[in-house]
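Summary for the funding panel

The consortium committed to producing paired sequence-structure records for every protein in the target list. Below we show the first two records in order, beginning with the earlier of the two.
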Amino acid sequence: MPSNPPNLRIAVVGLGFVGLPLSLSYWQAGADVLGAEIDPQLRAELSQALTHHLEADDGKPIRDILADALASGRYRLFASAAEATAQADATIVTVGIPHGPEGLDLGPLRAALVQVAKAAPRGHLILLRSTVPPGTTRKDLYDLLRSQGRTVGDDIFVAYCPERIAEGRAFREFREMPVIMGAFDAASEARARSVIEVVTRAGVTTSASVEAAELSKVIENVQRDVNIAIAQELARTCEAGGIDVFEVIRLANTHSRVHLLEPGPGVGGFCLPLALSYFLPFAQEHGVVTPTLLAARSTNAKVPPLLAERALAHARALAGNDQPRIAVFGLAMKDFSNDARLSPAVEVCQYLVEAGAEVRAVDPAVPTRFPFQGEDPAWAVSGAQALLLLTRQSGLEAWLEDLSPLQTMHRGALVVDARNWLKRGAEDLAALGLRYWKI
């Protein structure tokens, strides 16, 4: 790793799933960190070294890393991006883009960029690391600075460098994942590289344009969404033909140029299912139609209702005139995560509730409290006519090592395994008088 610039002060705006581990990575590398977070509750929790993130670095939980950072005096928290930026040498913006009924809402990101642009002193670097629609860095940052009379590449420097981490591996991947970066001029590129390389060891690939760097990040996410759609359609085909889809994928992936992902309960989180929302406006602006990408998104969107309907039909048949009871293990958007944003597991639960079922869901890692959520797996499965295994979590895996607690389920209940969780599910559950469906 390159030697660190002396007394480097980095402001990180947005201390969520990306910003928190990134800011701590800079602290670990020797920088003074000024973290800006406008959410007062989140900021208060962070000031007490409280976080629900499941990240760790070399076995050390992120809570402990945060506690050490705060105690060092080199990691400080601020309520505004402007206050942090004014005291820093460089600002990294990691503010997310919410998705509402009207589509992507760039309002929070734009508000943060306005604060940063106004407060940035001469010689400051602004590095945007949020995933954005192509053209955002130019329209909402570069043009903003020029309208203020700033000269990019002279008295202020601007670059775009998207994060590419996977949740749960943030610290390692901030160091080891190759980085892409686009800048508007050579001076900004050099400044951005020097700041990025404080943390990354994997090298920086520069783009010929900022827009290409923005689009490359978006298409990375779109590609995975499409890959998962392939796996979902393969799963339906394998089920119809009596073949184990996971075995087919294992065999196919022995080819060095094949990398199939696995099917699951759907695609969740703020990255993959929203990726097309970033891509389509750019494509449509240039008159390009993308039927393959639209079809893939539609395929993945249909999976949660499919699982819910299968479980609901079985539960209703067993419940007779009674309200069907359905247990759900896992509410996070993917395995071993605490993030329930746009989670397909939550969508399944909501679908079942609206259909009149009693839903009892557990997930020890998810801090969000849904009306159908409880803490005890035994409570969830007791008397249930169906159990959906939607997201793997360590606590739930440990509870299911011995399947005997499932004997409290309704006789003939269906266990839906959406994560290839139970390797010998059919045989083991049959011995308990239960049925098994692995997607």
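The next record, for a separate protein in the list, is shown here:
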Amino acid sequence: MNWYVLYTASRAEKQVELHLKAEGVEVFLPLHLSPRKWSDRIKMVEVPLFSSYIFVKTSDEKLRTLPAITGISRIVFYNGKPAIVRDNEIEIIKKFLDQARGKECRFALGDEVEIIGGPMKNIHGKIKKSRDGYLILSLGQIGISVKVKLDQVIKK
């Protein structure tokens, strides 16, 4: 049993995940939160980390039958064989996503940060202080400091 990569139809990753799970296949669809803007609001939405790609852990024989599932376009090949992703690479992706979701997020003085949503979107800053559940960010581009409460970090 190896981890393989499947290419899906555009925006079909979540539906493909459901179909594969129904078939009894172990699936990994890395999702992250991304700001989406509507005319009246900005909302954090879960989107695939790798658009149109999904990982499956299965046998080579079972893998060959999966393109028949609705939403799967093809198996990803490398050097004429289905591309195999090592277990440790899947673990690295999972760890990265956990850190990005704030589960293991640690900040240190001087860390560079970027605001990804709201009126200060794309403004860069440095962490000046960290205590009592707050960060003090120095936003040099606009010459101010901002106090941010850590429990306001969006978590899954």
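Regarding this second record: The CA atoms of residues 96 and 148 lie 23 Å apart. Residues 152-156 have pLDDT under 50 and may be disordered.
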